[in-house]
């Protein structure tokens, strides 16, 4: 019996030590927006020790509605959660959704997709406030890659007072807000240019405090988990520096 008690003590202490050493809890949840009869899968990363964690909402690039795209940026979401941020990575497209139009004027034919994405972001922020009220919702940052960056920029146009920062990972279609709030940052690929009028001019960047950084060794499609170790470290370093400004 004495041996059993000692062994049990060791196990309890080991579990407690593991829990303390784990910087965040990761969970796959599904929020349901009854007004649209729509399920919104979310990969949620909750830091273990940060009671007033700042919030980061991640929106993925287009993945042809196959699902799981919100888990395709784990190198970044895990690094953010380990740094004390509450991270919600949204799955925007469902298998039953129409495919993203690949012909026509993108700003016209893709607008419904971006509108739906912006509404998803708004709903997720609202749900997080209910479920995790201890987080810091005065400092919400949107991070979006490609099509998810277009959604994030649209949200910044529509709801500028709800967020403090937007970080675009090479969105190419939705024009940046020319504004000081929210703060705008962007990491640009080496291979795919943005459409005319999307990026602010150098004069606009200076006037509004917008930061645009070109990554000479990273192509557009290598900003998710397909990035190599060097690319991952560079993107994480830039994103964390933007968040801490």
Describe the structure.
It is a single chain. With 245 residues, the chain is of the alpha/beta class. Helix content is 36%, strand content 23%. It contains seven helices and eight strands. The protein has an eight-stranded mixed β-sheet, sandwiched between helices. Helix 2 links the parallel strand 3 and strand 4. Helix 2 packs across helix 7 and helix 4 packs across helix 5. The N terminus is likely disordered.
Number of extended strands: 8
Averaging pLDDT over every residue, what do you get?
92
Main sheet properties = 8 strands, mixed
Oligomer: single chain
SS-based class: alpha/beta
Low-confidence stretches: 1-20
| Helix percentage | 25-40%
Note the run of SSEs as H and E. Answer: HEEEHEHHEHEEHEH
- Rg calculated over all Cα atoms: 19 Å
Q: Which strand-content bin applies to the residues? A: 15-25%
Strand order of the largest sheet: 1-2-4-3-5-6-7-8
């Amino acid at each position: 019996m004495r041996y059993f008690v000692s062994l049990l003590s060791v196990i309890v202490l080991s579990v407690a030590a593991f829990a303390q050493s784990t910087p965040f809890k990761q969970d796959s949840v599904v929020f349901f927006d009854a007004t649209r009869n729509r399920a919104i899968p979310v990969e949620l990363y909750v830091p273990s020790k940060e009671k007033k964690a700042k919030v980061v909402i991640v929106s993925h690039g287009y993945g042809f509605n196959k699902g799981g795209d919100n888990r395709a940026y784990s190198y970044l979401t895990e690094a953010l959660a380990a740094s004390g941020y509450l991270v919600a990575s949204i799955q925007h497209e469902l298998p039953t959704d129409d495919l993203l139009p690949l012909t026509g004027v993108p700003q016209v034919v893709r607008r419904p997709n971006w509108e739906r994405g912006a509404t998803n972001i708004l709903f997720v922020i609202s749900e997080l406030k209910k479920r995790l009220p201890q987080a810091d919702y005065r400092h919400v940052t949107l991070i979006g890659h490609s099509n998810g960056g277009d959604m994030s920029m649209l949200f910044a146009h529509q709801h500028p007072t709800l967020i403090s920062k937007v970080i675009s990972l090479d969105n190419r279609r939705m024009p940046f807000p020319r504004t000081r709030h929210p703060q705008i940052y962007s990491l640009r690929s080496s291979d795919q240019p943005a459409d005319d009028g999307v990026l602010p001019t150098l004069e606009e960047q200076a006037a509004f405090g917008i930061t645009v950084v070109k990554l000479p060794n990273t192509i557009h499609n290598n900003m998710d988990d397909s990035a190599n170790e060097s690319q991952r470290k560079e993107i994480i370093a830039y994103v964390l520096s933007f968040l801490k400004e």
